[in-house]
Amino acid sequence: MGKTDTLNKTAEVRTPAENPVDKYLRMDRMPHIWCPGCGIGSTVNCFVRAVEDAMIDIKKLAIVSGIGCTGRVAGYMNLDSFHTTHGRAIPMATGVKLANPEMNVVVYSGDGDLFAIGGNHFIHAARRNLDIKIICVNNFTYGMTGGQVTPTTPQGIIASTMPYGNFEHTFNLPFLAESCGAVYVARWTAAHVKQLTKSMKEMMSKKGFGFIEIFSPCPTLFGRRNKIADGLEHMIQFKDKCKIKKGASAKEATFDPDNEIVLGTFVNTERKTFMESMNDRYEKVFGPKYVRYGEE
Amino acid sequence: METKEKKKRKAKGTVYIKDELCKGCGFCIEFCPLHILAFSEKFNAKGYHPPELIDDDRCSGCDICGMYCPDFAIFGEKFK
Ligand SMILES: Cc1ncc(C[n+]2csc(CCOP(=O)(O)OP(=O)(O)O)c2C)c(N)n1
Question: Structure pTM?
Answer without folding.
Answer: 0.88
